[in-house]
Write a structure and sequence with these properties.
4-stranded mixed sheet; 364 residues; 30% helix; disordered N terminus
Length: 364
């Protein structure tokens, strides 16, 4: 399937299923790839503060610049936007959430576009790096980007500075090489867990012993539930040059003999003890490992758009479908005409399959 021009577009209800920013991110990215106009209405209608937040607006503006498109309704709290894409171009693009809005969610909307540009793209993204309700930069670095190489995606991320709530101020640079088309993937064999790692960090006014306590408690939990595994610990006190604001958290990931990676994370706060942070992050990994999945609950929805765009039949073994995954499937089926197949297993796991459209950029 090739992207092309045409006057027929898409009209999407932004309140369905997950009803948040994910609908917007996937729909706008696909609109830019397909070069078809898009209207999204009732944006985040069920949220406490409906409409576009600063983070959503900056993501829209980023893609608008990447494809020389036009955007109507691009104001804060707007509940409806109309997007008319132009031709995708390569180059360097900057997006600044100007808050603790997630740089990883800015990357979600821009990455599919960068893949099918006419040359290498550099994304300089500023905002929160370890925000609640969004993947941390550590997840992108250790899980998402390594798995995306199986699709033929070559993207490299450099964390220049971390940024924490409420000011943000973090910055990452992501370099993306273009592809002619994406390869289908099969992630069905979990293999054996070969290593588990813990990254525990503090920044700003917090002392390093907070990260030490967190890492040690996570290690104790993992050793008890996953005996015999080598556990690597990384304990870090961020400098004022490497982080903005005061923050803490833990990121835990497990690697398998077949190249699968599952992970868990938790952010600290004034009301959350370091042991609670450790429990949350470690238990996510323990659950994923004990479920024998290849794709954890945080990755499954992020792979859907790439499965739909790839050439050939992709399959991933994951746990029960999240609402975010159901939402991603809904948008991709509506805009690309693909059909996802769900095969429920007796243990509650799912095999998600899709014959991708074999999308190729206009310049390919």
């Amino acid at each position: 399937m090739e992207g092309g021009s045409g006057d027929w577009g898409f009209d999407i209800d932004g309140s369905v299923l997950e009803g948040g920013g994910q609908i917007l991110r996937i729909a706008v990215a696909l609109s830019a790839l397909l070069q078809k106009t898009l209207r999204v209405h009732r944006i985040r209608a069920g949220r406490k503060t409906p409409g576009l937040s600063n983070q959503h607006l900056r993501g829209l503006e980023l893609v608008q610049r990447m494809c020389n498109g036009s955007l109507r309704g691009g104001q804060l709290q707007s509940e409806e936007i109309s997007f008319s894409p132009g031709k995708l171009t390569s180059g360097e693009f900057i997006a600044d959430a100007a808050t603790a809005g997630s740089v990883c969610l800015l990357l979600q909307i821009a990455l599919p576009c960068a893949l099918f540009a006419n040359g290498a793209t550099v994304l300089r993204l500023r905002g929160g790096t370890n925000a609640d309700f969004a993947p941390p930069v550590d997840y992108v670095e250790k899980v998402l980007l390594p798995i995306l190489t199986r699709f033929g995606i070559q993207a490299e991320m450099n964390i220049l500075r971390r940024g924490y709530y409420p000011k943000g101020g973090g910055e990452i640079i992501v370099k993306v090489n273009p592809v002619a088309e994406l390869s289908a993937v099969r992630l069905l064999e979990r293999g054996t867990v070969s290593a588990v790692s813990i990254f525990s960090y503090v920044a700003g006014q917090l002392p390093v012993h907070v990260s030490e306590e967190c890492a040690n408690h996570a290690e104790m939990l993992l050793s008890k539930q996953l005996p015999g595994l080598k556990i690597n610990k990384i304990i870090k006190k961020e400098t004022t040059a490497s982080a903005v604001g005061t923050g803490s958290g833990a990121f835990v990931w497990a690697e398998t003999s077949t190249g699968c990676v599952v992970a868990g994370s938790s952010n600290g706060s004034r009301t959350k003890h370091s042991k609670e942070v450790a429990v949350e992050a470690a238990n996510m990994v323990i659950t994923a490992v004990s479920s024998n999945v290849c794709v954890d609950e945080h990755l499954q929805d992020q792979l859907i758009i790439f499965m739909a765009l790839a050439k050939g039949y992709s399959e991933i073994l994951t746990g029960p479908l999240t609402l975010h995954t159901q939402t991603a499937i809904f948008v991709c089926e509506k805009m690309l005409g693909v059909q996802f197949r769900l095969n429920a297993m007796e243990n509650g796991n799912q095999v998600i399959g899709c014959e991708g459209v074999g999308f190729r950029s206009v310049s390919a």
